[in-house]
Write a structure and sequence with these properties.
With 245 residues, the protein is of the alpha/beta class. 34% of the residues lie in helices and 22% in strands. The protein is built from nine helices and 13 strands. The strands form three sheets. A nine-stranded mixed sheet has the order 3-4-2-7-1-9-11-12-13, with helices on both faces. It starts with a helix and ends with a strand.
Length: 245
C-alpha cells in the first residue's frame, strides 16, 4: 500500500505536514508516488527547509514564470524562495502557491519545523498552514518514546506546559498522542477533524510497531475518527499498519 492511499489524502488541494520525525521524507515519498502514477505534484515549504530537500522533490521555482516552465517540462517541482542570509528555502509568494496548485492540482507542503527532532510543540506563530488546505498530516517519530521529553522534543518547554510534566519526564505513548491531538499541539489551526491524519514514523520493528498501536489507540480516544498510519519511511515498503475508525 502506498502512503497516498494509507493516509487517504485528497487527490486535489494542498496537504500540509506538521510535527517532527520525518516530514521531509514524507513529502518526497508523496511526490514520488504521484509521479509513479503519472500524476503531477508540487512540493513547497511555508517555513524553512534545506536546498537539498527541495531539489530532491523537483526543480526549484520561485516565480510564476519558473513555475509554468517547470510544469511544461515535467510532473514535479518545488515552490520556494531563498533566504539571503542563510541560503535556506523559505515560503514563496502566495501567488506562486495559488498558481502552483492550479497547474499541478496536488501539492504537499512542509508547514512546520522541528530541528530534526522526533516530536515538537508549536510556538505562537506555528504551524504555517496554507489557508484552505485539503489535509493536514501530523508526523512524529517513535524514537521519542522511552526518552526524556527534553531530549526528544523541539520547544520542550511548550510541550511540558501543555502536558503538565517536566523536561526529565520519559515520553510515553499517551503523552505523544495527547501532543499530536491537542488544539495547542499538532491539531492547532486544523479546525476540521476530517482534515487531520497522523503518521507515526520509525516503526522499524515489532517493538516499535507495538508502540505505534498503543499510541494510535490513545490518539483515536483523544480525537475520534483520526486516521493513523504506522510507517518506516526509510524502507521501500514503508506502510506498516493503518488504524482507521
Amino acid at each position: 500500500m502506498e502512503l497516498l492511499e494509507a493516509l487517504a489524502l485528497p487527490p486535489e488541494g494542498w496537504t500540509c505536514l506538521v510535527g517532527g520525525g520525518g516530514k521531509s521524507s514524507l513529502m518526497l515519498r508523496l511526490v514520488e508516488e504521484r509521479i509513479g502514477r503519472g500524476l503531477p505534484a508540487l512540493a513547497a515549504t511555508t517555513t524553512h527547509i534545506g536546498v537539498e530537500q527541495g531539489r530532491a522533490a523537483g526543480p526549484l521555482v520561485g516565480t510564476l514564470e519558473e513555475l509554468e516552465a517547470a510544469r511544461r517540462a515535467g510532473l514535479a517541482a518545488c515552490a520556494a524562495g531563498t533566504e539571503p542570509e542563510t541560503g535556506k528555502l523559505i515560503a514563496p509568494p502566495p501567488e506562486v502557491l495559488d498558481q502552483g496548485l492550479a497547474l499541478f492540482g496536488f501539492g504537499v507542503a512542509e508547514a512546520d519545523g522541528a530541528k530534526r527532532l522526533p516530536m515538537k510543540a508549536p510556538a505562537g506563530h506555528e504551524p504555517c498552514l496554507i489557508p484552505g488546505c485539503a489535509a493536514v498530516v501530523a508526523v512524529a517519530g517513535l524514537s521519542a518514546l522511552g526518552r526524556p521529553i527534553g531530549e526528544t522534543c523541539h520547544r520542550p518547554h511548550l510541550a511540558c506546559a501543555l502536558l503538565g510534566v517536566g523536561e526529565e519526564t520519559i515520553v510515553a505513548p499517551a503523552m505523544l498522542a495527547r501532543l499530536l491531538t491537542h488544539e495547542a499541539g499538532q491539531f492547532k489551526g486544523v479546525g476540521d477533524p476530517k482534515k487531520f491524519r497522523v503518521l507515526l514514523n520509525q516503526a522499524d520493528g515489532p517493538t516499535e510497531l507495538a508502540l505505534a498501536r498503543e499510541t494510535a489507540r490513545v490518539i483515536q480516544t483523544c480525537l475520534p475518527g483520526t486516521r493513523v498510519v504506522a510507517a518506516a519511511l526509510r524502507e521501500t515498503d514503508c506502510v506498516k499498519e493503518v488504524f482507521s475508525c
